[in-house]
């Protein structure tokens, strides 16, 4: 009799445990590793930046997040590569810190990694482009963005 009452009591207890409405995770990083081999860069380009962004509805909206397409929040990371002799040749390792996620399991995240060059004369970053011949960022063919998605 005691064992039946104990089982009935546990069953009742289990039924009253509320479902979690928000699961937060912290401390995750996403790392992108990619070869960079740019040649024939303008002598004005002093460094190349590999910038990676991750957007997901599992990322909470707060200070420090990026505004993505249709307001989806995101995080980013980057690595600079020094240009020498008109070349940027290296393996880039870009770490995107993910300080927190909400209900991430099964959610989709999209990512995009882009390359930009820093003009030493203009003191600004710009995207490489094949159609503009009059500036430091002319590069044919321009490097394609690395894009894709994954599920948390």
Explain the overall architecture.
The two termini are 47 Å apart. Mean pLDDT is 80; it is low at 1-24. The protein is elongated, with a radius of gyration of 24 Å. It contains one helix and eight strands. Strand 6 and strand 7 form a beta hairpin. It has 152 residues and is mostly beta strands. Helices cover 9% and strands 50% of the residues. It has one helix at 2-15; strands at 24-38, 45-56, 66-67, 73-82, 88-102, 108-119, 124-127, 146-151. The strands form two sheets. Strands 2, 3, 4, 6, 7 and 8 form a six-stranded antiparallel beta sheet that branches.
Summarize the structure.
The chain has one helix spanning 2-15; strands at residues 24-38, 45-56, 66-67, 73-82, 88-102, 108-119, 124-127, 146-151. It is mostly beta strands and 152 residues long.
Topology (elements, then pairings):
Blueprint: H1 2-15, E1 24-38, E2 45-56, E3 66-67, E4 73-82, E5 88-102, E6 108-119, E7 124-127, E8 146-151
Antiparallel strand pairs: 1-5, 2-4, 2-6, 3-4, 6-7, 6-8
């Amino acid at each position: 009799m005691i064992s039946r009452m104990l089982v009935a009591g546990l069953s009742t207890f289990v039924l009253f445990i509320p479902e979690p409405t928000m699961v937060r995770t912290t401390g995750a990083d996403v790392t992108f590793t990619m070869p960079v081999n740019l040649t024939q860069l303008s002598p004005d380009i002093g460094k190349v930046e590999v910038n990676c962004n991750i957007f997901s509805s599992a990322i909470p909206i707060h200070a420090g997040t990026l505004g993505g397409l249709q307001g989806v929040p995101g995080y980013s990371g980057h690595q600079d590569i020094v240009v020498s002799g008109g070349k940027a040749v290296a393996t880039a390792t870009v770490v995107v810190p993910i300080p927190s996620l909400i209900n991430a399991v099964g959610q989709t995240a999209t990512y995009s990694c882009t390359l930009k060059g820093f003009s030493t004369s203009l003191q600004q970053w710009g995207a490489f482009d094949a159609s503009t011949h009059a500036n430091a960022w002319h590069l044919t063919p321009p490097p394609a963005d690395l894009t894709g998605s994954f599920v948390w």
